[in-house]
Amino acid sequence: MPRPRRSPRPVPPSALPATEPPASVAETRRQLERLGRRARKALGQHFLVRPDVAERIAQLAAIAPHEAVVEIGPGLGALTASLVTRSPQLWLVELDADFASLLRERYASAAHVEVVQADACAVDWTSFPPTSAPLVVTGNLPYNVATPLLARLLAAGPRIARIVVMLQREVAERLRARPGEPAYSALSVLTQATASVHKGFRVSPAAFLPAPKVESEVVVLYPQQAQEIRNCGFAPLRAVVRAAFAQRRKQLRNSLASVAANPEAWLAAAGIEPQRRAETLSLAEFAALAEALPAFAHHA
Asked: What is the reported pTM?
């Protein structure tokens, strides 16, 4: 991916310049017209037109003076306007060339802001951005890439202090779902294995242009390895969870046959009844299965 030419120079928040956000539907339309653009459905573009929502996201991010910030998919910069006065170092990662150019022009005189035209799903978050400061990652994530993007961010480990993002409400509910709840899924287990998940606030479709057909929700994730998986590791856990939920309506002795030569013996070794289903298992129980897997896997 393209690299910034330089690291943004830290600036005291009190010295940061104010900027003019697209503060309404009319202003957002005017900016798009000036660019000769419409929202691109293929990129999942829905532009935030409520500055009060942007301000709430920035407040929830709770950016400290020693932290650096990355905004993913800033678009026309509605959220950026609330971040730029709070962030000593701010990177804007924007895939769309038109919007990246607009943001570069708008913040040309802001030494602490760097615009990077790149696909956030292709960024190596273990090394980007080039700073040793703790990172706060935020943004209005496109619905069509939110899940794989979150996985990449969480894989970066402790260099990311927290992730404050807007998602489709259904995805947000899956992230924090518990065993037995309808939204509980492989995404729930694997996310909770690598982060603590906290509800922020819901956002109406009317806050966007064009309005999506679903509600959104802002969530806060604190990347951290759950104690339950410290003895098994993430890779074995992922293999077990994906196999179990691939056929979630089947009993575990059947759904896990693709992973183990003798599922019933494996389940017994982990202390789990073979007739149970994936949606009833806790993270600790999935971890117990992952820890016992080497003795029962097909390749053993």
From this structure: 0.88
